[in-house]
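Quarterly update from the structural biology core.
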Amino acid sequence: LLNLGLVSLSYTLKYMDVTIANTTFAGVSSVLIAAIGYYWFGERYTLFQYCCLALVLAGLIGLHLTGVSK
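Predicted structure, tokenized:
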């Protein structure tokens, strides 16, 4: 999975600035890891943790809506 992620990141660098692509990569990775932990390992999160994940998603959506492509 790490190789797939790095290949995806290098591909998106053709279309996005490095700072935005890295931020997006880190945010999506964090949310996906949290989802994997929830579904596969049965981890439970507090309301505050859900709110923090929602803020990460809101930030990613905000970056996408501002039109960050090259």
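The chain has a mean pLDDT of 86.
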